[in-house]
Amino acid sequence: MPKQFMRLLIKLALLTLILIMISVGIKVSSPENHIKVLSLLIFTFFIITAFVSYVLLKTTQSKPAAFPRMYMMTFGIKLLTLLTIYVTYAISNKPTLILFTVYFSLLYFIYMVFEVRSLFTHLKPSKK
Q1: Cα–Cα dist 11/43, whole Å
Q2: Which of 6, 12, 14, 71 is most buried per CB count within 10 Å?
Q3: 39: which residues sit within 8 A by CB, 6+ positions away?
Q4: 26-41, pLDDT tens digit by residue?
Q5: Greatest CA span in the chain, whole angstroms?
């Protein structure tokens, strides 16, 4: 389990590093299209995705039959957490809300695709 999770964590860290580099590129090339919390938002998605992946990988090892229930529970908790972050930002920073919404949506989609792809790769039976 630690070896599988470490591989996933390295890939997740590389994805996050690429996204932070893109964020810095946006800040340098087009400061009006950059929001101050973008790097923090990327880091938040990294932490949430790492935690959810750890819980789901742990579940597949200990109780594979409980995976669908655990997946739905972690998905619900993740969605509520991200919704809380979004609403908090929307209430406090209305001038940059549209730009935040675009970045938030893109990050959500990117990290969701990464998480699902990683889990399917792990859960797919190996051909021997």
Answers
A1: 14
A2: 12
A3: 20, 23
A4: 889 988 878 888 889 9
A5: 56
Residue 96, Cβ neighbours under 10 Å: how many? 14
Per-residue confidence (pLDDT) for residue 128, from 0 to 100:
55
Task: Report residue 2 as tokens.
Answer: 């630690």
Query: Is the pLDDT confidence value at 4 over 90?
Result: no
What tokens does 73 get?
A: 């529970």
What are 122's two structure tokens?
């792990």
- Residue 20: is it exposed, middle or buried by C-beta count within 10 angstroms (0-12/13-18/19+)? middle
Q: Which of 47, 59, 35 is nearest to 111 (CA)?
A: 47
* Full-model pTM: 0.89
The answer to whether residues 52 and 8 touch, using CB atoms and an 8 Å cutoff, is no
Average pLDDT taken over every residue of the chain:
90
